[in-house]
Amino acid sequence: MLRFLTAGESHGQALVVTVDGMPAGLQLDIPSLDDQLRRRQGGYGRGRRMAIESDRVEILAGVRHGRTTGAPIALLIRNRDWVNWQQTMYVEPDMPEGASGVRRAEVTRPRPGHADLAGAVKYGHEDIRDILERASARETAARVAAGSLARQVLGRFGIRVASHVSVIGDVMLGEGRAVTFAEAAAIPEDSPLRCVDLDVQQRMIAAIDTARDAGDTLGGAFEVIATGVPVGLGSYVQWDRKLDGRLGQAIMCIHAIKAVGIGIGPEVAVRPGSRVHDEILPAPDAGIPVRPTNNAGGLEGGVTNGEDVRVMGFMKPISTLMKQLRSVDLTTMNEAPAAIERSDVCAVSAAAVVGEAMVSFVLADAFLEKFGGDSIEEIGRHYDATAEQVRRRFAARPTPA
User: Fold this and answer.
1) Could you read off the pLDDT of 72-113 as tens digits, one per residue?
2) DSSP string, 23-47
3) Which 3 state secondary structure label does DSSP give 99?
4) What's the distance, Cα to Cα, between the start and end of the chain in Å?
5) Burial (0-12, 13-18, 19+ Cβ within 10 Å), 203
């Protein structure tokens, strides 16, 4: 129903994203697209690149007079750093006259943990820059732009998305600490690490400082929470329609993410069933039965159950270390220190924002699948009709005599 494709390199002219399947008639909050890009650039531990870029979205197609038309939406995010890379990243066969920046040497020493070596072998490139430019997490700016459009579709129907950081290195929130949507949504936008516990956040900052001083990097974990999600998104009837699987793929495809958890995640493997499954109780008033817990993270059998959807992403440390790891120079096949590219010490808080975008996109896709239509008005009618049907089903019944 909803899909997007991105193009562009880290130090090329721009990033481009095309979003297909957006319904017609959605009044866009265009400044909020830039707000989401700004959030992605923040966070303690980010590198010097964030001081150069000031990402803004240019809408090229699919929107007229502030409203979506139903046609594919084309977005452009220019790279301000392009001016420093024209002699290295030019498109033409020969360097154009007046190209700015400096001509950088070929990259031949792959970084452990990055796509460098596998990509060079797969595509047959001698200069690893052909790999790292596209494999760079700079591409996630385009994903955030696409996810921001999806977030506005969800917001039209009362679905909101927020995130928080729970782990940096070996510093983490207390065991069993369940962060509510309200807590995550209340985190100030200038928060250095998007952690709800300020004392824990200060220890996270100290850990990042220690890693930076050692020429090292740190990973961590974040959680994305979506509230207001209706029952019935996704399906159990086929493997590729299960919404938890689709959300898992959406998080796993973010750069450096190595594991995903739904609800309490890996904890389900060590608890007995009595402490995993969320009991079902009558609603205090007429309505869908309620859950006293949400260990399932709002998903059962690949279908949303009306509770908050909760998805965790576990991020490995960034692959570029200032204290270089051992590698091989592919021109000589001799041992050599891995290449150094300008990079972050820790980017977990930025990954959380990307996670919000990806979760928003998958939820919006599932929402349109369930309540489909070509325009927001048509989708709204289908949504209201379904809500009324559910309300009638769970309306209060007379007490048996």
Assistant:
1) 999 999 999 999 999 999 999 999 999 999 999 999 999 999
2) PBT-B--HHHHHHHHHHHH-STT--
3) coil
4) 49
5) middle
